[in-house]
Design a protein that fits this description.
The complex is a heterodimer of chains A (336) and B (313).
Chain A (H helix, E strand, L loop, with lengths): L10 E12 L4 E13 L5 E5 L6 H8 L7 E6 L2 E2 L5 H10 E4 L3 H4 L6 H13 L4 H14 L4 H4 L9 H13 L5 E5 L7 H18 L2 E6 L2 H7 L2 E6 L2 E7 H6 L4 H9 L8 H4 L10 H4 L15 H5 L4 E4 L2 E4 L15
Parallel strand pairs in A: 3-8, 3-9, 6-7, 7-8
Antiparallel strand pairs in A: 1-2, 1-4, 4-5, 9-10, 10-12, 11-12
Chain B lengths: L1 E5 L1 E6 L10 E6 L6 H9 L6 E3 L5 E3 L4 E3 L5 H8 L4 E4 L13 H13 L3 H14 L16 H13 L5 E5 L7 H18 L2 E5 L3 H7 L2 E6 L2 E7 H6 L4 H8 L38 H5 L4 E5 L2 E4 L1 H4 L2
Parallel strand pairs in B: 3-9, 3-10, 7-8, 8-9
Antiparallel strand pairs in B: 1-2, 1-4, 5-6, 10-11, 11-13, 12-13
Helix pairs in contact in B: 3-4, 5-6
Classes of the chains: A alpha/beta (336), B alpha/beta (313).
């Protein structure tokens, strides 16, 4: 856990591991495997990116305190969030808020959305006078491009997906959180509307100093809004660092493959993208692999990659879990 | 005019005229509810209530004259055109396989019906065919649930292509898949198209996929084609304000410039706005746009747009 001595981090994950069991023989796999992350205490947007099944949503739930990890700790401003009780827990819930993928699933269809906003202000923020509550809700709704008149009296189905997602963001903002965890908040929306929500995040960060953890599989939107990125693969964070560096000079072979495969809206990249790639049929097995989970698909894999889990190596401020970059010690991993 | 019926009519696909050529990949792009999937279903002739076609024809060149897909009944389409001339790869294709039969039986059924092969022969042909496509040979002996989503999707594509159809219709064929798997599958699809020199009509909302695969692209908005042209041209020089805003709203790697999304939302197609259907969201709206529907005009060779900004010139 190097590199956080100066100043207190906002969020710190130490060796976080979540084990799920399934099947009748209690088959176990690590949905999140030894994740270490440090997020400084200043307004930042951190992306946790990965494909389906990479463990990114499980990790989000761990950070929110919904899942408890089997090993490791999540420290929020120095406090282990899975040990918080009573007043401290309430404090944590004020400070850390969530926005989820499907806004229609976040609101009860039979309940007016205003009710959610009202209750949050009354119970968590602690304003009790009706007029003051409404004034406060209106102010927050305006920061996401809505206002009280547009929202009051309406049921969820009366909003479009983009509008309701804004309401969900406003609800999260009501407690003046220091950190918002947004799990695929734009993937249900049409492409032409996504950027509007992303711009709301950027503005909130600038105006209110809120930090974000943006969880997504979409690296283009991640690049657009984030400062830092953690790339997950089969439960492990395999690369973590400033987004500029990770997405323009990727170190890990998986990050490289991922970036090459994104279909970008630019026909000039076509011939490169059409260069044939091979696909593997084995996916489940990778979770329980002994060594590096990417080894079976990696063009640079050596014997060691299959046998030992790769160490976390720091290269130019980027942490990468790959034997390719390991130089200290006896036998450095070779490029083949 | 093609319409959904449900006590009221939803004008889901409206006055679309479209040509797709031999040895071409034609993309149909647009956002949710624009009618792109409905259009594809109509081209396939898969018209079942609540979907009804109120007017129009879908002509397919079979090599021995053209036939109107919509003039046949469902049974006739099934026995005479589907698989052989037109194949359809549906959305969520990975869930269309029958969970209780092995992959080889899916192939055998098609081969028996359309080539009159017996079971043993069909199994042999199927095994050979999948290895040709680069799939592992034992895929044919597996049940669908034993395969990964990506592998199932490739099986469905292989099935759709086995009779070497002249026209292949693919509706969001890789939407639920990871980008690496998506790339592999789309590569298979395009390789097959080049080999057969047939027509692939690809529907997806993903503009990136269009940029990587299609020769021409048609942009749909609220049931209408608003622009059509060569893919490079449409991306480099989009004409319709909707196309322009759509392309400009897409974040790109390596580019942090501030982007703007569209304001507002698509119209309710139970009562579409008069004139141009995009006018309520368009920054260039004039009175004419509110009253009259713009015609599709050819601005440059092969590049068509339905917008009064260009029609009046």
């Amino acid at each position: 856990m190097a590199g956080h001595e100066a100043g207190k981090p906002l969020l710190e994950l130490r060796g976080v591991t979540k084990i799920f069991r399934y099947g009748m023989f209690g088959f176990r796999f690590r949905a999140v495997d030894d994740v270490n992350l440090v997020m400084e205490d200043r307004p930042l947007i951190l992306t946790i990116a990965g494909e389906s099944g990479s463990g990114k949503s499980t990790l989000a739930k761990i950070i929110l305190g919904i899942h408890k990890p089997e090993y490791g700790q999540v420290l929020y401003r120095g406090r282990d969030i899975h040990r918080l009780r009573g007043r401290e827990l309430l404090w944590f819930r004020k400070e850390v808020q969530a926005v989820f993928q499907d806004p229609f699933a976040s609101f009860n269809p039979l309940k007016r959305v205003y009710g959610y906003l009202y209750e949050t202000v009354k119970n968590i923020v602690g304003i009790s006078e009706r007029a003051k509550i409404d004034a406060y809700i209106d102010e927050v709704l305006r920061s996401v491009g809505l206002n009280l008149d547009k929202v009051k009296g309406k049921y969820p189905h009366e909003f479009s997906g983009g509008e309701l997602q804004r309401v969900a963001i406003a609800r999260a903002l009501l407690t003046r959180p220091r950190l918002i965890i947004a799990d695929e908040p734009v993937s249900m929306l049409d492409a032409s509307l996504r950027v509007n929500i992303l711009n709301v995040f950027k503005r909130i960060r600038e105006e209110m100093g809120t930090s974000f953890i943006y969880i997504t599989h979409d690296l283009a939107t991640a690049y657009y809004i984030s400062d830092l990125i953690a790339i997950m693969y089969r439960g492990s964070v395999i690369e973590y660092g400033p987004i500029e560096r990770v997405l323009t000079k990727p170190l890990h072979p998986y990050t490289q493959t991922l970036l090459e495969s994104i279909p970008e809206p630019d026909p000039r990249r076509r011939s490169e993208w059409l260069k044939p790639i091979k696909l593997s049929g084995i996916e489940e097995k990778e979770f329980v692999a002994k060594g590096c989970k990417f080894a079976p698909r990696c063009p640079y894999a050596t014997k060691r990659c299959f046998e030992e889990p790769p160490p976390e190596v720091v290269v130019n401020g980027v942490r990468v879990r790959c034997w390719l970059y390991y130089v200290k010690g006896s036998s450095p991993a070779e490029k083949r | 005019m093609k319409t959904y019926e449900e006590q009221f009519y939803v004008d889901a696909v409206s006055g679309v005229t479209l040509e797709a050529y031999e040895n071409e990949v034609l993309g149909i792009a647009g956002e949710s509810g624009c009618g792109k999937s409905t259009l594809l279903k109509i081209i396939y002739g898969y018209v079942k209530p609540p979907l009804t076609v109120r007017s129009g024809r879908v002509l397919v060149d079979t090599g021995k004259g053209s036939i109107d897909v919509l003039s046949m009944d469902l049974e006739e389409r099934r026995s005479r055109i589907w698989w052989r001339y037109i194949s359809y790869i549906p959305q969520n294709a990975m869930n269309v396989l029958n969970p209780t039969s092995r992959i080889r039986d899916h192939f055998a059924e098609v081969l028996r019906l359309h080539q009159g092969l017996d079971r043993e022969e069909a199994y042999r042909v199927a095994a050979e065919y999948v290895t040709q496509l680069g799939l592992p040979r034992d895929v044919v002996n597996a049940f669908p649930h034993q395969l990964s989503g990506g592998m199932r999707q490739r099986v469905v594509i292989a099935l759709a292509l086995i009779m070497k159809p002249r026209v292949v219709l693919a509706d969001e064929p890789t939407t639920a898949l990871d980008v690496v798997v998506q790339r592999g599958i789309l590569q298979t699809l395009i390789e097959r198209q080049r080999e057969l020199r047939n027509t692939l009509i690809l529907v997806t909302h993903d503009m990136g996929v269009h940029a990587m695969l299609t020769d021409r692209i048609a942009i749909m908005y609220a049931g209408k084609i608003v622009e059509i042209g060569r893919t490079e041209e449409v991306f480099e020089k989009p004409l319709h304000p909707y196309t322009r805003m759509l392309i400009e709203s897409l974040p790109r790697l390596g580019d942090k410039r501030v982007r703007k999304g569209l304001a507002g939302q698509p119209p309710d197609l139970r009562s579409p706005p008069p004139g141009c259907r995009f006018h309520p969201r368009c920054p260039y709206t004039t009175d004419r746009c509110r009253r009259e529907e713009p015609p599709l005009v050819e601005v440059e060779k092969g590049h068509w747009v339905a917008c009064w900004l260009y029609a009046k010139k």
